[in-house]
Amino acid sequence: MAFVPIYPLLFFFFFLVLTSSQMPFYANAQTYKNVSLGSSLIAQNNINSFWASPSAEFAFGFQQIQKDGFLLAIWFNKIPEKTIVWSANGNDLVPTGSKFELTIDGQLLLKTPTGQQIWKADSSNATGVAYAAMLDTGNFVLANNGSINLWETFKQPTDTILPTQPFVEGDTIFSRYNETKYSEGKFLISFRGGDLVLFTRHSASDVDKFYVWDTAAANGTELIFNISGSIYLAAKDGSIASMLSPNNISTKDFYQRAVIDYDGAFRHYVYPKSSTSSEGRPLGWSILSAVPSNICLLGREDRGVGPCGFNSYCTYDQRATCHCPGGYSFIDPDDVAKGCKQDFVSQSCNKESPETDLFHYSKMPNGDWGYSDYEHFENVTEDYCWQSCLEDCICVAVMFRQGGVCFKKKPPLSNGRMDPSIDGTILVKVRKDNSTISPRNSVSKKNNSSTLILVGSILLSSSVFVNCLLLLVTFLVGRSYNKIRKEIQEQSIFPGMGLQSYTYEDIKKVTNDFSEEIGSGAFGTVFKGVLTSDHGKLVAVKRFNSMVAESDVEFKTEVSAIDRTNHRNLVKLLGFCNEEQHRLLVYEFMSNGSLESFLFGVSRINWYSRIQIASEAAKGLLYLHDGCSTQIIHCDIKPQNILLDDKFTAKISDFGLAKLLKTDQTRTTTGIRGTKGYVAPEWFSNQPITVKVDVYSFGILLLELICGRRNVEAEAGDENEIILADWAYECYTERKLELLVKDDKEAMEDLKRVEKLVKIAIWCIQDDPSLRPTMKNVKQMMEGIVEVPIPPDPSSA
């Protein structure tokens, strides 16, 4: 009997255990080399239903995309994101209980619980099918007994190409509709006539060429994505006709994919397979290349083509982001590609009432709607350009370029973009009384004029007061000039913003001289106010205790970033005061105050309301991290900064303020942002501060919402219960989760959900930031789209 050395085997076993322990969110599942005829998968909530490749790097099966909507897909299976690379039914998700089957006669069928066929693999010529297999290349195949592929997903791509996957003449990939919707979008890439072409489509039968790759690739034969990580077009002789992504990053160390994203760009992504192979790259998907380099700068006349819809404009920072100009808002905030709608009554074309005094402009530097021109002038001033639009009821905006060139724009505004390469400034026409910026209106002018006439008549009745008249006129003209100059300065300081600019005296009137305090904290004090000019609308005015003395430019930058946010789970900023040492922010009023009073006070909210608030807070935080044109790290997520409106909708407040405060303005250590108990450990260890500090704070907040108690309770009966995070992990490992919610009947009846949320919270509060999920991961786990793996001890790293 041959002797087998035991030490190599022990070392190999130890290596496997160690490796698996360092892979967060990896769901252990049975792997398959071959799938036999007659096998099937069932779509089930929160239950893995897939066939994995031999290495388990890829999986084929059901992913839950919506509450009761499943996608038959292939995904990267060893990373937290479970990134999808192929799907069968993106246009038609299936419900719980749907079945995918490899039939006895070798057919691949997807059916609903009622037996309705949703999808079938086009394998009519695939006779002699013996089995199916999920391969380590990411290719799912039907094969015969000779291991010849009779049908494969590599030849039926959706939006992604993987290394070694062929892409030849006639092949096409479609973009997704948006980040969360897997139906076919409006962009496609196809190999046609030897060219690789990016098309945009307006309907199933109406497509236009949008971008053609390097003309040197004419008569190309194939798009090559090799195992070295290079992507190029091959000529007929096999040589490189055009290099798309020259990066030589081995597939041995990195997961890789090339995707036509929903904004139309073709991007090459990589993801380190382990922290030791990251070559300085962060864990997570990073972009190696993108073609076109700036999708916002492409477009076509009269088509509204591009990442963003009519009346909106596009900015680019790795990806395209859509915005609405001042006076406009998104038609559908959940589908920004539909464009923006006008929030005010258009200018009248009645010649007897031109309404020129009822409109002003919202300013956008380095902007343009390139295909909305209908008239232009040369050698004119900006004032002339604007006045020409103001007197023309058709004109909705003008672009003025240095050198005196003026372009008038007609509706709808098409192919908008803002980019430093654009030489020009856009002035968008906005009605004053409908705008959130409210310069002095015509009624005020009439009142001032009437007063002036009355005073003038009295003074003119006596020549003794002629000099008084001259002094009064000088005073009024000077005051009007100063106010107009201030308005112009504010517009230039905050270009494109739709915020009300207040003087300090205005704020004192709004708050009745700061008479009603409704909240205070380390940052400042909040007062209740009333906008008499807006039908008595209630507002909350935040007055800062102190700010960095030289922060004038920073204040303007941060307020501009806050203004560009637009999400139902963020408190809306309405206006500001930036006058000498006075800097205040005016927010929408939240009638139910902060979460703190309902979570820790006498009138405690119920279990299901707490779950809803946790979900809404996660969505708001995800938007700050990934949905804004400028990423915002909140730095102080806690119950006091989660506010509730009259319908108890949770909204995050005080976002974007961290950079405005003095470095020592904190409740903890100098230089640290945040509040004791919610502060991530990297603040104390000189590590880089990233969005993961917010994830940590959210984890603590989630535990407080689950348990209905503060994160630190010094008077707890048992010393083990003083620190909530430690106690929650102890209860989880000892399977005593009922102790966390023992006084909550609803939660006690929902312990399965309690366990899931506790596991999510434990992942969020890991000491090692790289082990914490992103807020996108958190949202997916909370919604049941991805399974929550077993978390490690938060302090074990």
From TrEMBL:
Which Pfam family, an example, fits this chain? B_lectin
Q: What keywords are assigned to this protein?
A: ATP-binding, Disulfide bond, EGF-like domain, Glycoprotein, Kinase, Membrane, Nucleotide-binding, Receptor, Serine/threonine-protein kinase, Signal, Transferase, Transmembrane, Transmembrane helix
Keyword Ligase annotated = no
Q: Which reaction does it catalyse?
A: L-seryl-[protein] + ATP = O-phospho-L-seryl-[protein] + ADP + H(+); L-threonyl-[protein] + ATP = O-phospho-L-threonyl-[protein] + ADP + H(+)
An annotated GO cellular component of this protein is: membrane
Q: Which residues bind ATP?
A: K542
User: Which Gene3D superfamilies does this chain map to?
Assistant: Bulb-type lectin domain, Phosphorylase Kinase, domain 1, Transferase(Phosphotransferase) domain 1
Give the signal peptide, or none. 1-21
One GO MF term: ATP binding
Domain Bulb-type lectin, by residue range, is 38-155
Q: Tell me the PANTHER family matching this sequence.
A: G-TYPE LECTIN S-RECEPTOR-LIKE SERINE/THREONINE-PROTEIN KINASE SD2-5, G-TYPE LECTIN S-RECEPTOR-LIKE SERINE_THREONINE-PROTEIN KINASE LECRK1
Q: Which family does it belong to?
A: Belongs to the protein kinase superfamily. Ser/Thr protein kinase family.
> What is this protein's name?
Receptor-like serine/threonine-protein kinase
State the organism named in the record: Ziziphus jujuba (Chinese jujube)
